[in-house]
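in:
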């Protein structure tokens, strides 16, 4: 199961772990996945590559309906702009997918946001503090 995270879905997040340096990535996709563990690198079963994930607090509860934990995964698909920055045929030369956010806006417990950088409008958003 995967969904676009909402603020209320992230209250049990303890940290965000990046597997790659995100400084040069205009955007990453984020999804809320149901997994069997609270922390550690979750299984990744999408095309493309995992860029990061969230770890939950030690006391984070399991979902009542599935018995699994809801954790964020950050990823890029093969056709995403950060993978093909100079390709004029890239489908996201301007704009970004619905679930895409600027990785510089990501914090544990907070959904990331779109910025001029993630939308490729030519403006540069300030780095997170």
């Amino acid at each position: 199961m995967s969904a676009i995270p909402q603020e209320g879905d992230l209250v049990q997040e303890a940290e965000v772990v990046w597997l790659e340096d995100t400084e040069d990535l205009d955007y990453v996709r984020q999804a809320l996945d149901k997994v069997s563990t609270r922390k550690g690198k979750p299984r990744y079963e999408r095309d493309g590559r995992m860029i990061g994930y969230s770890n939950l607090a030690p006391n984070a509860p399991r979902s009542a309906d599935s018995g699994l934990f809801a954790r964020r995964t950050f990823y890029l698909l093969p056709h995403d702009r950060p993978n093909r920055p100079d390709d004029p045929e890239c489908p996201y030369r301007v704009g970004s997918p619905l679930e895409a956010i600027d990785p510089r806006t990501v914090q544990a417990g907070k959904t990331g946001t779109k910025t001029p950088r993630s939308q490729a409008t030519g403006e540069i958003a300030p780095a997170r503090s």
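note: Confidence is low (pLDDT under 50) at residues 123-129.
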